[in-house]
Amino acid sequence: MALEAITPLLAIVIITALVFDFTNGFHDTANAMATTISTGALKPKVAVAMSAVLNLVGAFLSVEVAKTISGGIVDENGLKTEVIFAALVGAILWNLLTWLLGMPSSSSHALFGGLIGAAVMSVGWGSVNGGTVLTKVVLPAVAAPLVAGLAAMLSTRLTYRISKNADAKATSTGYRAGQIASAGLVSLAHGTNDAQKTMGIITLALITGGAIAPHSDPPLWVILSAGTAMALGTYIGGWRIIRTMGKGLTELAPQQGFAAQTSAATAILASSHLGFSLSTTQVCSGGVMGAGLGRKGGVVRWSVASRMAVAWVLTLPAAALVGAGAEFLTEQGTWGIGLTAAILVAGAAVIWRLSRRNSVTHANVNADEIGTPAAPVEVEPVIIESPVAEATARPAAAVQSPSA
Amino acid sequence: MTIDWAALGTVFGVSLALTVGLVGLFTLGIVALSKRGPAGEREGSAALTTSGAYVCFALCAAAVAYGIYVIVA
């Protein structure tokens, strides 16, 4: 490809895409590793390192997803480079905000939302395929937690029944090993799916910018940089989200962690290969809740779960709104693009500063009490107002009905 | 707009069956392993439980291998 074809704008888009990829990595570490960390199957640092390596490996395994990036949600023809930039800005800011709040939310939905918002602002409502949004985003978001939750709940019941008379100490090693294997599969699948989304975005930008020919495969440097950015993000670890998923939603014993992670791995692999794509984040959260309900006397903290559901519902429209705002600015010309980039950097800096007030790290991710709660009480930036304080310790309400 | 209910149903069924099956199998394996060893058990039955456990683990390992195959393919 012609390097001279990489304009400053294109370079900004590529960098922004890699930043999104990085946030995607640390947002989604929780999916593979939250339960592995909370049950003590792996030490926190070891868990994120393993996940990062498998993400990187996964990025090289296939480029199928990258070729069908936006999945028909917006009309890719005539998509301008600025629109992609604006979409990424929306997705990154939403990812960072949900991370600050310790909420697992789908990075893919954030990206779709950003794309939709920016495309509508740029070309109007005609560019968005509403039916596709419903079938590819809304329905899977409802189905994913149900599928994984039910599977995790039933298998938790089964495993407790079978191991009723066994020595818990002797079996827990086995459960941990099984959990690590399932978590590894989830990481690998995540690398192939999500790193490719960024590859797809960069490739799309290169094509629209005229740097490479239409229908090209992602160039090697794109695969390499996207895989690395995601692995780095994964290794940094979104500890706030890991804490919510591993300890905030419910308390997990090794049996439950194993059941949750196995249901997540099977549901992800089944969905991506039987033609009905489900979001990894929602599958994993559903698995954790199901495993929580499957144990006799197990509890799910519905207050945390419902805040999570709110975050899921808001993800697409919120990212779309930011994407649309960003697109409005970038349309104004070079100064608008510069301003958007400045807003992105400033927004990220503010969120990072807020996160320092009660930082969650590998050292305290499993602690019963963190000097401050897992997700901020005093920080109430926009949208989701209620505290996630319960994430720290006490079981809320006993739950009898398997209404997951 | 068409919703592919068949695909959704298949995903639901396959996920459910595979998860419950694998978790059950793996649990049988580790329970069998945890029961071997204590005094009073005859040599033969201990060997039987152990090999039973390894069959369970081998089947689970095969499932993981298939999972990796599915990711790569």
TrEMBL record, chain A:
<feature type="transmembrane region" description="Helical">
    <location>
        <begin position="335"/>
        <end position="354"/>
    </location>
</feature>
<feature type="transmembrane region" description="Helical">
    <location>
        <begin position="309"/>
        <end position="329"/>
    </location>
</feature>
<keyword id="KW-0592">Phosphate transport</keyword>
<feature type="transmembrane region" description="Helical">
    <location>
        <begin position="198"/>
        <end position="214"/>
    </location>
</feature>
<dbReference type="Pfam" id="PF01384">
    <property type="entry name" value="PHO4"/>
</dbReference>
<keyword id="KW-0472">Membrane</keyword>
<comment type="similarity">
    <text>Belongs to the inorganic phosphate transporter (PiT) (TC 2.A.20) family.</text>
</comment>
<keyword id="KW-0812">Transmembrane</keyword>
<feature type="transmembrane region" description="Helical">
    <location>
        <begin position="220"/>
        <end position="242"/>
    </location>
</feature>
<protein>
    <recommendedName>
        <fullName>Phosphate transporter</fullName>
    </recommendedName>
</protein>
<feature type="transmembrane region" description="Helical">
    <location>
        <begin position="46"/>
        <end position="63"/>
    </location>
</feature>
<feature type="transmembrane region" description="Helical">
    <location>
        <begin position="6"/>
        <end position="26"/>
    </location>
</feature>
<feature type="transmembrane region" description="Helical">
    <location>
        <begin position="83"/>
        <end position="102"/>
    </location>
</feature>
<feature type="transmembrane region" description="Helical">
    <location>
        <begin position="109"/>
        <end position="128"/>
    </location>
</feature>
<keyword id="KW-1133">Transmembrane helix</keyword>
<feature type="transmembrane region" description="Helical">
    <location>
        <begin position="134"/>
        <end position="154"/>
    </location>
</feature>
<dbReference type="InterPro" id="IPR001204">
    <property type="entry name" value="Phos_transporter"/>
</dbReference>
<keyword id="KW-0813">Transport</keyword>
Automatic annotation (TrEMBL), chain B:
<feature type="transmembrane region" description="Helical">
    <location>
        <begin position="45"/>
        <end position="72"/>
    </location>
</feature>
<protein>
    <recommendedName>
        <fullName>Secreted protein</fullName>
    </recommendedName>
</protein>
<feature type="transmembrane region" description="Helical">
    <location>
        <begin position="6"/>
        <end position="33"/>
    </location>
</feature>
<keyword id="KW-0472">Membrane</keyword>
<keyword id="KW-0812">Transmembrane</keyword>
<keyword id="KW-1133">Transmembrane helix</keyword>
